[in-house]
Amino acid sequence: MLWSLPLSVIVLCWSHVSSADAIPQRQENPSSPHEGTPRQAYNKIAPKVMILNMFNEEAKIWHESIPSLGKGSLWDKNISLGGLSPLYPQAHCTSAGDVCQATLGESEINAAASMAALVLGADAASAFDFARTYWLVSGVAGVNPKLGTLGSVALARFAVQAALQYELDARDMPANFSTGYLAYGTDAPGRPPKSFYGTEVMELNEALRDAAFDLARNGSGSGPLADDPGAAAYRAKYGVDDDGDTGADGYGEDGGSRNSSPNIYVAATAPPSVLRCDSVTSDNYYSGRLLSEAFENTTRIWTNQSQVTYCMTAQEDSAVLQVLLRAHIARRADFSRAIIMRAGSNFDRPPPSMTAFEHLLLLGQNGFALAVNNTWNAGSLIVSGILSNWDDVYGPGIPPTNYIGDVFGSLGGPLPPNFGSGKDVFGGKGAAADGSTDGFGN
Ligand SMILES: *[C@@H]1O[C@H](CO)[C@@H](O)[C@H](O)[C@H]1NC(C)=O
Ligand SMILES: *[C@@H]1O[C@H](CO)[C@@H](O)[C@H](O)[C@H]1NC(C)=O
Ligand SMILES: *[C@@H]1O[C@H](CO)[C@@H](O)[C@H](O)[C@H]1NC(C)=O
Ligand SMILES: *[C@@H]1O[C@H](CO)[C@@H](O)[C@H](O)[C@H]1NC(C)=O
Ligand SMILES: *[C@@H]1O[C@H](CO)[C@@H](O)[C@H](O)[C@H]1NC(C)=O
Ligand SMILES: *[C@@H]1O[C@H](CO)[C@@H](O)[C@H](O)[C@H]1NC(C)=O
What we know:
Purine nucleoside permease, alpha/beta, 13 helices, Pur_nuclsid_perm, Rossmann fold, signal
């Protein structure tokens, strides 16, 4: 795919955010004693794509399948980096160093700690040059049946740390509360936070997200995604309502007049497709309609949107992005090159005919292998698209036209955060790595 940038986009380009010259360029190492050996032998590895997985099965499909791209194997180079997960202590790269992979470990703490080692650690600094690297999070997730299904692959604009709230057990909450979750500094559910930690919402480069979406769909249609009969059988349950007919009036929300309201889960009943919708991060592996709807609301309110955009839930995305944001400020990575790709391996809430407990624990949904396969089916097209359009498009980078970064405006840019308090803590200049800005004034 040829991607030419309209002039208006170039004019909007945030010089200190989007262009590779903002970050130190590759060390050419002219005084190296190894004259005569190939440059690659002593230069830092400058990956074009770094694939980030959370656990073994997510990584395995990339390790097994990458050779089919004809760019070598991820086992050509194994790089030990102090600070990575004890389970996954090495990053892996093809011999040319174009494509690399690391496994971070599961949940927010593992993801943040491993990412810090991978991007900011001392070993990483001597091994890698990440100035122009694309970061592709490739993992499985819980999927919202209002927007997707088992095996669907979603590319996010927002990652929301939705469980970062006060929580009352529902049995202790006031009778008029719809959920036990309330944002910090507020006294009722459904209100935006009054107090922020900074990681609540991370916004990605939407133009890159859309380019990745086109690549993953192979230009158009639903793309090359696999389907599975077992997953199809489970998703069909979302087309059957709680009185067992196919009218699918959800939970009888229409007050008993069956079949009069449209099925809110139509998307769940369709075959898998590539989607554009947002990712929730929560350490807590929640399941069920009420928690899922509560975090759906949290995502809508915190990102200042009017529609449901939350479609995937996992335990790492906000953590990965927060480290990339800090690495950007430290001039070690480019936040505008981050892609969050998640594939639905299980629904976040049950079909109308089942309880949350049955759905979570007692019944197989048959989505896991399908989701893992589809991270490759969609993700490999993103990777090969980046590699084959490197010189013209992806090497120079796709400038963001939306706000990117956290709730504080830490990366600066012409646009203030369009969510959260809308307060740009750094006055559009972004945070400085040299101590000239600090958070004490906030
Ligand atoms: C890298 O690690 C893999 C998996 O442990 C191994 O099979 C491979 O031989 C290693 N590559 C090198 C170059 O040592
Ligand atoms: C719940 O009721 C109390 C009064 O009993 C009221 O002050 C509060 O605003 C209500 N909260 C919601 C979320 O409706
Ligand atoms: C992508 O589409 C092209 C035709 O436009 C086709 O030749 C190719 O096989 C497709 N790739 C995949 C992975 O579906
Ligand atoms: C989600 O928000 C809607 C609209 O404000 C509200 O009616 C519903 O009760 C909320 N759901 C939960 C679980 O909080
Ligand atoms: C996943 O891909 C593997 C390897 O191609 C295949 O054997 C398996 O049947 C696929 N499973 C699903 C559910 O797509
Ligand atoms: C949220 O959206 C509303 C309506 O579009 C807008 O008036 C408001 O300024 C937005 N808030 C922020 C923080 O941008």
